[in-house]
Amino acid sequence: MVDTPYTCFVVKEAEQGGVQMKGSIGTTTSIYHTRLPNQHSLQRMARCLDLSREAKNRLSMIGHYKKHKNVSVTCRRFGISRTTFYKWLKRYLRKGPRGLEDLPRTPKRRRVSRIPWQTVELICDLRREHPAWSKHKIAVILGRDYGIHLSSSSVGRILKRKGLYDKRISRRKSRAAKRRRARLRAERWMRKAFPGCLIQIDTKHLRFGGRKYYQFTAIDCFSRVAFSRVYSSASSVCARAFLEEVKGYMPFSVLALQTDNGAEFLKHFDRATEEELITHYFSHPYCPKENAFVERKIQTDTYELWAFQEGYTVEEVELTRFR
């Protein structure tokens, strides 16, 4: 084996428990870690100064450099760059072992609140009198009744700093606010009632020319009248535009829609259904059988229109409507 600055070999007798291996002279040898000449003093210094683990490692790096006088070997030994080594060496020469500690990362100039203490006391009094009031309501009341205009975030920081912020209650309120409203489920009889009673809508992902497109498909469960349109995005805005086209294409009034739980059928799309007084039904999660009519229509379109992609170009996909 090759002798390095980090390991060395010493001849020992076999009865002392040495590792049985043959060296260059055919005797039993043992391997142990090399200790630097001043390693004991550096370790005592680190213990006396109560340095952190990172600082102790950097102190060992300095001791390694003092022994070998070679920056490249030291950097390879500790896995750092030369710039990093010189940075810690300068700090060590300027401040000693204490300079090897990490500097505090807190900003030198912290932002100081400019809200008057009278306003802070008023916010605390309102919260103590009405514990159920949120930061949003307190901000509105301050502007309406007291002429103090503060953001809800500022009110929340004051409540948190004064210990008037209960995480459990706030978490419960936030979950209740984000909880979705109850989603309606369509009845079976609606599929065979009359035209326009229930129209199912779904999307199909397409890929042409390295780009992704989305086919929105709507079909009336009673009359089987279908309408499809390709968009470059599957957002709720595109779904709302598709709803307007469906209303203009269908020869009867649209009373109810049924979709899956995709994001494209929420927000703008759901808001449009409320404005148009159209009942929006949702299928159960992971139950495509509830949208069997539109699923069958998508499969038919896939075979008739998209199975042989050489018949259409990207421009035709963007400009063509399939009815």
- Overall number of structural domains: 4
Task: Classify the fold: give the CATH topology of the largest domain.
Answer: Nucleotidyltransferase, domain 5
Unreliable residue runs = 1-24, 26-34
- Fraction of residues in β-strands: 5-15%
Order of helices and strands: EEHHHHHHHHEEEHEHEHHE
Summarize the structure.
With 323 residues, the protein is an alpha/beta fold. It folds into four domains: 1-34, no CATH class; 43-103; 117-178; 188-322, Ribonuclease H-like superfamily/Ribonuclease H (Nucleotidyltransferase, domain 5, 2-Layer Sandwich), CATH 3.30.420. The protein is built from twelve helices and eight strands.
List the helices and strands and how they pair.
Blueprint: E1 7-11, E2 29-33, H1 39-49, H2 53-68, H3 71-78, H4 82-95, H5 117-129, H6 135-145, H7 152-161, H8 167-178, E3 199-208, E4 211-220, E5 226-231, H9 236-249, E6 256-259, H10 268-275, E7 279-282, H11 292-306, H12 314-319, E8 321-322
Parallel strand pairs: 3-6, 6-7
Antiparallel strand pairs: 1-2, 3-4, 4-5, 5-8
